[in-house]
Amino acid sequence: xxxxxxxxxxxxxxxxxxxxxxxxxxxxxxxxxxxxxxxxxxxxxxxxxxxxxxxxxxxxxxxxxxxxxxxxxxxxxxxxxxxxxxxxxxxxxxxxxxxxxxxxxxxxxxxxxxxxxxxxxxxxxxxxxxxxxxxxxxxxxxxxxxxxxxxxxxxxxxxxxxxxxxxxxxxxxxxxxxxxxxxxxxxxxxxxxxxxxxxxxxxxxxxxxxxxxxxxxxxxxxxxxxxxxxxxxxxxxxxxxxxxxxxxxxxxxxxxxxxxxxxxxxxxxxxxxxxxxxxxxxxxxxxxxxxxxxxxxxxxxxxxxxxxxxxxxxxxxxxxxxxxxxxxxxxxxxxxxxxxxxxxxxxxxxxxxxxxxxxxxxxxxxxxxxxxxxxxxxxxxxxxxxxxxxxxxxxxxxxxxxxxxxxxxxxxxxxxxxxxxxxxxxxxxxxxxxxxxxxxxxxxxxxxxxxxxxxxxxxxxxxxxxxxxxxxxxxxxxxxxxxxxxxxxxxxxxxxxxxxxxxxxxxxxxxxxxxxxxxxxxxxxxxxxxxxxxxxxxxxxxxxxxxxxxxxxxxxxxxxxxxxxxxxxxxxxxxxxxxxxxxxxxxxxxxxxxxxxxxxxxxxxxxxxxxxxxxxxxxxxxxxxxxxxxxxxxxxxxxxxxxxxxxxxxxxxxxxxxxxxxxxxxxxxxxxxxxxxxxxxxxxxxxxxxxxxxxxxxxxxxxxxxxxxxxxxxxxxxxxxxxxxxxxxxxxxxxxxxxxxxxxxxxxx
Length: 749
Fold this sequence. Notes:
Blueprint lengths: L16 H6 L1 H11 L1 H14 L6 H10 L16 H16 L2 H17 L2 H25 L8 H13 L5 H12 L6 H24 L9 H22 L4 H6 L8 H17 L6 H23 L24 H9 L6 H21 L3 H21 L2 H17 L1 H6 L1 H21 L3 H15 L15 E7 L2 E6 L3 E5 L6 E3 L5 E2 L2 E2 L5 E2 L8 E12 L2 E12 L2 E7 L8 E2 L5 E2 L15 H12 L16 H4 L5 H8 L12 H9 L1 H22 L7 H19 L10 H23 L5
Antiparallel strand pairs: 1-2, 2-3, 3-4, 4-5, 6-7, 8-9, 9-10, 10-11, 11-12
Helix pairs in contact: 2-5, 2-7, 4-5, 8-10, 8-14, 10-13, 11-13, 11-26, 13-28, 14-17, 16-17, 16-18, 16-27, 18-27, 25-26, 26-27, 26-28, 27-28
């Protein structure tokens, strides 16, 4: 639609129509003069921030030439009259040529004139000036182009962060890490990503200060609340880390996640910077093309894997070839590096797809610009392939909920354009069927597993006792005697004489003899599945070498317990890392008899929820979940995982993780922030007949963040994908802000 300013249209509608016709020009000119200094200083800042600082006249002339050109934003009502534009141009020229002393004199004279007016007249003038300023800023938002330089840090972050760590040798990292954080990491790739994020973080702060636009946040309640809550969240993260018993982990993050205090504060900086930098309508193209390049890189790695390309001899691993740490990396990590397209784990790839697929789908359906639409369709197909390749049920669940929200939000448009809607549904059905054939039905099995997990939550499991389903249902210690209660018998290990002697529940001696190897076995049929071995190991305690005599207890050739014979009775058991382990029956909440649901998440969640009661205000510190989880709940682990030697490192729920590590208050703040954003987005975009460019971008981010939020209900976040979420979150709030501003000016129906 063409933008054609109507003549004789004033800045604000006044009650008297005759005065509006006769005195329109004089009122507009007077409003401009009253706010000359403040208004046009902001005008100059807008031009400087968009990279057009060579001449004021050039930009104003360009804006005037574009007056009759069609707008991408589908402006349905004119909002700036010819008189207003002419006055803006004249006043801008006057501001450039006027000396500062003259400006101050005019400002003083204007204040004197304002004093002569009555209170109601001054109030009316202020309203007119504010309306004029808002209209001018919205006009510049729509008319001017993007300053790509201000988005350089975001481009680097989105495009390069997933693979940049492959270019640096672990040897160099091993030299830097002890000086940086005091410890050498084993998860080299994730650790390097965290370092790169922190290194480019000053760029975000610098560019945010140089290019940010004054957004009148004090008058926008949604942005004001979001900024306040995010600030409170950051304070709680810092306090929890500083007061944590695990300061090193809290500052730098735990392995396999690398989200310490510094990284989490960096996330908030990314979000706030994105809100400030999104100041032109065409800025969405920066994010769109960056995400497109990222998706292209991921699909190239996937294609290289399917064609059996020698990934490890490629240029991406030049720094890794001669590394001494390269030999220490397990084959599982090698496989993850190749298979899951730089994200290192299938759940992370699924999380990334829960962001990318909804975003590109919305852009492909609604964007009218041909090249953007074509690229969006291609990237949506690529994202769909990556999602199916990841086989992540959490990713599938996130995408499913995101598409459901999209259908409800845009139901009016779907009904109007029902032919295109049916076409999109048909394309997805064909693609899904083809993926099912290509994977021999594994795709459909994921949906079946999701349905079974959902139904299992509502099954009645009263009086359930998992102890009946494991070989050893109770462990007890009495001095230097250990009692292992089995389903039918009790095995007693006595170390009071300095040698291991075994007895049954009646106190009768059970003979164990050394077999062909190092283990002791018995011919007694009651304990035929039990065997043990003793040895002396060396451990480091406070940087001092310590020798310990341990007993390894086996059940059906699987090690189940490590007993510290020298530490009886206080330090009787050790974990697989030879650290003291207190065997306990951990308290739980919910999921009784459903511990194996959602791929064993029911167990972790049920044992995590009771931890929240002790962390009402302050958490245990970032990355400290594995330290706080009751790892000594070995019998329940045996039932759930088939082995008691399992260390729970992640809660697989972003919200429970926040509650444990940063406190219930931080969790509440985070939920409130998401709630305000989702409600605001839903009310802005629901039941609309058409969408302009800014609304399409905001809608795409809204749907993508819904998918991510649902996905992170089943997985823990990490440095691989989380920065992308925070960037989109900031741009989403910025887009919503401008949509509200434009609708205030009655630009859209």
